[in-house]
Structure prediction request, 673 residues.
Amino acid sequence: MNKIVISILSFTFLLGQSDDISVQDIIQAIDNNLNAKSRILTSKMIVYGRRANRTIESRNWVVGTDKAFTEYLSPAREAGTKMLKLNNKLWTYSPQTDRVIQISGHMLRQSVMGSDMSYNDMMEDRPLGELYEATLEGSEKIDGRNHWVMLLEAKTKGLPYPKRRAWIDQEYFLPMKEELYAKSGKLLKTSTMSGINKVRDRWFPSRFHFKDELKRNSKGTEWVIDDIVFDKKIPKTRFSKALLRK
Amino acid sequence: MIKFLIKGILRDRSRSLLPVLVVTLAVAMIIFFQGFMNGIINSMFLDSAVVSTGHVKVITKGYKEESQLLPNDLALLGTKQLIDKMAHKYQDYFWTPRITFGGLLDVPDENGETQAQGPVFALGIDFLSPGSRQIEIWELERRLKDGRLPENKDEVLLSTRLANRLGLSLGNSVTLIGSTMHNAFTTYNFLVVGTFKLNLGPVDRQMMLVDISGARLALDMEDAASEILGYTNSLFYDDTAAVALRQQYNKININNTNIFSPTMMALRDTKQMGVMVDWMNAASGLIVGVFLVISIIVLWNMGLMNGLRRYGEIGMRLALGESKGQVYRSMVVESAIIGSIGTVIGTTMGIGLTYYMQEVGLDYSKAMESLASTEIIMSNVFYAQITPELYYAGIIPGVLSTVLGTMLAGRAIYKREMAQLFKELET
Prediction:
């Protein structure tokens, strides 16, 4: 009996919430937080390996969702490696071989620098609203904070994760926890974010944790943002293939 | 008596020619057949051992669990010390490190940009160390189709099929795109110095061979290896010995659950090789056994026929006063001489034929090329193999069956009554 009463109350609460703000508004708010006209950031990727952990430092320049340039700063073996993303194309340059190589096809599913993130994950940062149809499944309390649980199903074909479930913080409008699924429903990856700060007019996390659920014994990868600047003008020359070799 | 019997055999061709011919043919066929089966089985095991399994191999426990994924983050470390230890302890084997890795091979155009790209299955093999037997066991000099063998760490051999698919020729530079043992992204330039064809079905479709020092640099695997392969010094796979060695080695680490602790596998423990080893041994034993039994029956029957054919002659000799024992013994010795002559000639012929097939082989390329699976490594050309037992394998069917046949037929001598002899001779 108690369970029924609680269920009815929860349902009423949910209805109340969705009256205040629509699912589309929530998704829009998430996109507003995570996407910007441009951003320049310095970050550390900590890859928790089975034998040892590695920390890879990089600097990124991003304009919208189509242009991104990454330069790896350390460790020594990776320093000088650069990546350029233009629309749906990705090139990489490594100083050891002095070659500019386009990453395409099944290589896009490979891990970036041994992390739990794939090149596809790096490439795919179009707004959620453009790619997914969202359905509100309920709400949950995590660490004393209210979250919406939302199921996102792909609107377009060919996405690396046709289905994802997100736990969205009701204050920050950020997907604090996500489960990314294959078309078959198999769980492929999980991600969490933490260290939420107000940067200008948006909430933005400073730590992400990704875990490839297909990797046995994987402890995941942490991505820590040391420094981020939004909406700063970045010259067009930053996104040229010629800059990869410089 | 033996001298007398030999003279009789040589002078009376009707007594010796056909029996010697039959024994010769039967022995030659048995020897050739056994040599051919030996060749197929040993070559199959050796091909598998050379390309992937070794006669035995040492890997980490974690690598064993995920071997299909080629997880070089679970590779063995400190391989020089490990190999030195094993070479000292297990002297019937020689040990060699191997790195197995996958990736993409990228071919640049004149501006250094991607012209062609394709998946590659690569092996880092210890070609360049002094005393390494890898060129010998891979038979690379024979299998090289174009160019030369690698002489330094940055030189690679590509299978002809991979080179053709990517439009590569000798002297071209290629870039390997892959992951280091720490799973970091890596690119490394290699120079194509030769192309090869293994003639092992589809196994070399995407294969690249590089010296292990080059693979170590490319994959950041200093003194590390995916596996350490062990081969018997004679290159013959002895399943019982390999299994015993594996048990002895693994006893040390039996309670160690650390995924980086080394463990040994015998050839039969890899993929479906166990079933293959058992099946091949059983099938070859059965085929050779059936063939042997048929030959024994034929030769036995020939001994019987020979005894019966000489019924009159035996009667005459008994009538002239030779004792039954003397006649019986002389016939047995005579059949032993005939059997021995046939066995020697048959063995010589059989070994000659086996040697020819050992050198030339039987080419099954077209049938093997159509196989899609790369799991079972099987040669496109079947070669026979001369093994020590072939030199005496003909004795049982060649000498013993002939003698046994004669002994059986000779029992009739003792049943003959002297009183009846003259009546028989009169008719």
In short: The radius of gyration of chain B is 30 Å. Residues 13-53 of chain B form the longest helix (41 residues).
